[in-house]
Amino acid sequence: MEHEGPRLPTPRGPLSRGVDAYLRGAGRLPRLEEVARAEVYGDDLQLALYLCYELHYRGFAEVPPEREWDPDLLRIRAAMEQRFLSALRTDAHVHESVDEALAGLLVEPVEGTGVTHFLRAEGELWQVREYAAQRSLYHLKEADPHAWVLPRLWGRAKAGMAAVEFDEWGGGRAERVHAALFADLMTDLGLDTAYGRYLDATSAEALATVNMMSLFGLHRALRGALVGHFATVEITSSPGSRRLAEAMRRTGAGPAAEHFYDEHVEADAVHEQVVRHDVIGGLLEQEPQLAPDVAFGIDATEFVEERFGARLLTDWRASRSSLRTPLALEAAHIS
Predict the structure, then answer these.
(1) Phi, then psi, of 126 in degrees rounded to 5
(2) 252 and 245 in contact (C-beta within 8 Å)?
(3) Element (H, E) at 93
(4) When you count CB atoms within 10 A of the terminal residue's CB, does the N or C end of the chain come out lower?
(5) Which of 101, 121, 103, 102 is nearest to 111 (CA)?
(6) Are 205 and 41 in contact (CB under 8 A)?
(7) How far is CA 308 from CA 21, 289, 313, 321, in A?
(8) What are 197-249's pLDDT values in tens digits?
(9) How many CB atoms within 10 Å of residue 94?
């Protein structure tokens, strides 16, 4: 019997091949030594981890819902998670305090060199489309990974987090849910809006950005890191969205594409204040021992985003696609 959800993607190595086969009921799971040999930020481990996490979202068409809590699958997922988390703690550790970590986010560089700066200044429509396709793995479930932290907070932190999430989900209006607004953006860009459609095309670096959210959200012990991650997203979103809105206008992406980022410029400027003062402030007032985890969540988010940005810019500046498979044109007005 098939279930609702996207199709399973093409495996990228022994780990993802083993997880794929197990999910289909057609083979064994990978061995722990295969996990230990895999490149931690590479395609194979990141895709295998994504497959495991996606069972907690919408699942896959070929996979029965019961696989979500399969104990053998959870054991191999735990091994992959430990490798990923250990690598992040080693590679992304920058700041000792939350104040220091936040201070770095609040200062906009005079001459920025990241992806949003590139797309605003010189990006072409094909690059805007690639960016949207890769980001769709998150934006079509925007706010969902963060919702898992709500039962793990209380008081001011919980109220602030719930207020921001309510806005992300459209304030009770289905047509204003941010995931729906992103689907409208994709339509403007001639992209397929089906959930999970671009999983095969997406780079390991993009997968890591989404996997990190799921990792932090699914573990109560990492609630501080999730709050740090969420703060980073909200604090950096408004200026980045302003640049992307300008990129959409300059490249003629379409009114819905412009609206998505215009909406984030306004909403996230307010969210930044709520997150800093109520979510982080409330959490550390109640659980001050989580301060190092909040700082880690900020640093880890910056680290995976910088890796993703570097991958995009390296490919684009070499005039090559950043995707594993080419994009099809889904709308006649895109040329």
Answers:
(1) -65, -30
(2) no
(3) none
(4) N
(5) 121
(6) yes
(7) 28, 31, 9, 14
(8) 999 999 999 999 999 999 999 999 999 999 999 999 999 888 999 999 999 99
(9) 15
